[in-house]
Structure formats: structure tokens, C-alpha cells
Amino acid sequence: xxxxxxxxxxxxxxxxxxxxxxxxxxxxxxxxxxxxxxxxxxxxxxxxxxxxxxxxxxxxxxxxxxxxxxxxxxxxxxxxxxxxxxxxxxxxxxxxxxxxxxxxxxxxxxxxxxxxxxxxxxxxxxxxxxxxxxxxxxxxxxxxxxxxxxxxxxxxxxxxxxxxxxxxxxxxxxxxxxxxxxxxxxxxxxxxxxxxxxxxxxxxx
Length: 205
Fold this sequence. Notes:
Blueprint: H1 3-28, H2 30-36, H3 38-48, H4 66-86, H5 91-104, H6 112-122, E1 133-136, E2 144-149, E3 152-156, E4 162-167, H7 169-180, H8 190-203
Antiparallel strand pairs: 1-4, 2-3, 3-4
Helix pairs in contact: 1-2, 1-8, 2-3, 4-5, 5-6
């Protein structure tokens, strides 16, 4: 591993550790955080008291067999490789990437960074834009809603097909504020921002 890569990796891991430790301290001694870090305390209070809807790291729609999981991972990787080679995908392929991610579950997807970023580019949706908006792709009845990252909800059919993607301004604002207090929101390494959502919600379980 090159020195630059080692430095970048260390920086990301350090920020993750800092965030987890601060939230741990908040749970143990909220008055301490309130006294010394009032803005951070306010963010945590809003999240834990459910002033905005909670985000939970989503689980697969159903338990997959090892063979099914293998097939989903292979198809997902094939689409990601196609985008990296051709720099383009159809909207259907962009949605399919997200659908494979949903079927696998974010914890079981090693390349979830690309699996979230690439569909955003293909579908022309900025997952960080602070707006309330729904993007409709297919007709049908919504049977389930899965939060992709805080402030980005996927509305699905009973068999896991994406009908629409919804952006929720308040939750996106909260996510960005929570990332900014440790400098993650402005980090050039996009996966830090995505992983931050995971760590943040894991810590409040």
C-alpha cells in the first residue's frame, strides 16, 4: 500500500473512531456533551428523540441462500463494471443496482459505496440535495419502503422492484449536520459519508 493510501485510510478510520466515541460518551454522560459540545448535543437529541424519522441499516427483503447471494453479487458487480467501462447505464440498470443492494442488505455488500453512488449519477438524483421530492420510475402499488441512507427512501413493490425514490429534506439536513461536526461531510472520500450513516444508526441501537 502506498503512503498516500495509508494516510487516507488512517484519516477515514480516525474520523469513524472519533464519531463513535463521541456518541458513546453522549449515551453515558449526555450532560457532559451538552456542556462542552452543545451543537453536537442538539443533533443527537433530535435523532434519539425522533424529531425526524429514524434510519435503520436495512436488512435483505428475505433471507437469501448462499447461491442466491452469489448470483446477486455477480449481477451487481457486472453492472458496476459495465458503468466503469462504458461510463453509462440505462435507468433500468441504475434501478437494478439498487435492487441488488436491497436484496443483499448493506452489511453484506462490500462495494456498497459504488452501488449507491453510480445509480445516483445514472438516475440524475443528488442524494445530498436538501429538498422534498419524489422521483417516479414505474407504476404500481407501494408495498414497502426501504431507507437507502438517511433522507433517501426507496418505495418498492411486494417483490422488491423500485417504483420511486423519495428525498426528505429534514433528514438530509440532519445527516449533513451530523457529518459536518467531525468534518466528514466535506471529505473527498465519499464512502466516509455513506459509512457515517451506517455508524451513526448502529450506535443508537
